[in-house]
Inverse folding.
């Protein structure tokens, strides 16, 4: 745990490498007792989360590269928020989002063969499949079929319902709360400020994967917010000798940090020379790539030492990656070999969710580099599936309610923070919406 916010100093990012004086959990003033996972097995609590969290916070729905030209659009299903949105680049070049609802009879406006599936494309206007009402790219109602049959309809009042939309470093966020007054940058806090300037726009080679997971959405975030499980669950990804060594000594992150509802963990990455010993499978040695990405980092216009201050905050020589959790469900991983991985966790019920993983690389210059990137992408897919399968077993046993209190170690500090934050949002929502006392 060398080098951390526990070490003090005037610089909030580049801290002293001296060891912390206390545990991470105690430093962040988080209770160290056993925890309950009742918030992950309750249909009633999930219904509260939908209104308290997913209809009130900033949600990342994509990137600007998905809207390369005027008229480009994509839809996003936000089941937890009881919404579907269409995100579009207007004729003025601006990125906007609208509720995906026709103002005539409430039909879903933009969809292809299956209404519940997401879609994308390019168009000059949006036309409802039901009665052909048409809207321009800025959401204005421009055509009503048989308009004379309506009773003096004022078309200026029936444009698409706009959703608050802001862009940070190319990431598109929406907020479904019409009363929200918190700008995106303020909401994302010091981590976003400390990441500003990272060249995400250069990482346009994209690999995506998606899985339906039979667990509560928070349980998967838990899995990626600690490395305590890695030497055990993922032991099959290592050679036997390496696996035994990691199991014996365990795994420690370099640094943890918390900022409001958000959190991060900075970790070593196993990429220090000799690289051939750090990676374990024959194909990884041949392609010089694997779990940590291609070994030969592409040029992104800045050296490791020049990275923005929130990235590798301890400036540790063995740093490998940082994992930022932007509450509620967006995880951003920045890797030393100059590539990025994002995770999204989209709840569909109290015990199911959609997991999306997206790898971003600098476009390959040749076939060998493309193979390096594809190996990194499929390796992460394998790790993710191992976690997802385990979480379904966790969910079923939590729902048995055989045990209701669980001890967590110091490496699981971010798990405590996530569940505490979720419960705090729900409590605040309940208090704000409690019926007024009667006299």
């Amino acid at each position: 745990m060398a080098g951390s916010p526990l070490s003090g100093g005037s610089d909030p990012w580049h801290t002293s490498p001296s060891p912390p004086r206390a545990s991470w959990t105690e430093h962040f003033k988080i209770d160290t007792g056993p925890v309950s996972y009742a918030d992950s097995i309750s249909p009633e609590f999930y219904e509260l989360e939908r209104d308290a969290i997913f209809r009130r916070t900033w949600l990342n729905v994509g990137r600007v590269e998905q809207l390369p030209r005027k008229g480009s659009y994509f839809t996003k299903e936000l089941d937890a928020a009881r919404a579907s949105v269409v995100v579009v680049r207007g004729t003025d070049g601006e990125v906007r989002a609208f509720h995906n609802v026709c103002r005539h009879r409430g039909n879903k406006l933009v969809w292809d063969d299956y209404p519940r599936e997401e879609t994308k494309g390019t168009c000059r206007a949006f036309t409802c499949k039901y009665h052909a009402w048409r809207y321009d790219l800025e959401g204005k109602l421009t055509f009503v079929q048989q308009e004379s049959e309506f009773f003096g309809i004022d078309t200026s009042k029936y444009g698409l319902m706009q959703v608050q939309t802001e862009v940070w470093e190319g990431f598109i966020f929406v907020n479904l709360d019409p009363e929200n007054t918190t700008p995106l940058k303020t909401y994302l806090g010091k981590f976003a400020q400390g990441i500003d300037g990272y060249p995400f726009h250069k990482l346009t080679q994209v690999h995506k994967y998606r899985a339906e997971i039979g667990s509560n959405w928070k349980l998967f975030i838990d899995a990626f917010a600690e490395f305590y499980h890695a030497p055990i669950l993922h032991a099959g990804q290592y050679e036997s000798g390496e696996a035994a060594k990691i199991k014996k000594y365990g795994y420690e992150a370099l640094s943890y940090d918390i900022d409001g509802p958000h959190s991060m963990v900075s970790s070593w990455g196993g990429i220090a020379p000799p690289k051939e010993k750090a990676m374990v499978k024959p194909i990884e040695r041949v392609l010089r790539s694997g779990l940590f990405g291609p070994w030969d980092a592409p040029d992104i216009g800045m050296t490791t030492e020049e990275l923005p201050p929130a990235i590798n905050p301890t400036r540790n020589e063995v740093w490998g990656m940082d994992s930022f959790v932007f509450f509620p469900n967006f995880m951003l991983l920045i890797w030393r070999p100059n590539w990025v991985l994002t995770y999204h966790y989209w709840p569909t019920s109290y015990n199911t969710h959609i997991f999306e993983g997206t790898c971003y690389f600098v476009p390959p210059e040749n076939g060998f580099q493309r193979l390096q990137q594809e190996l990194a992408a499929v390796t992460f897919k394998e790790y993710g599936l191992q976690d997802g399968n385990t979480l379904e077993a966790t969910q079923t046993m939590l729902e048995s309610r055989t045990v209701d209190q669980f001890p967590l170690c110091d490496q699981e500090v971010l798990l405590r923070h996530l569940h505490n934050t979720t419960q705090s949002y729900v409590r605040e929502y309940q208090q704000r919406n409690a019926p007024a006392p009667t006299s």
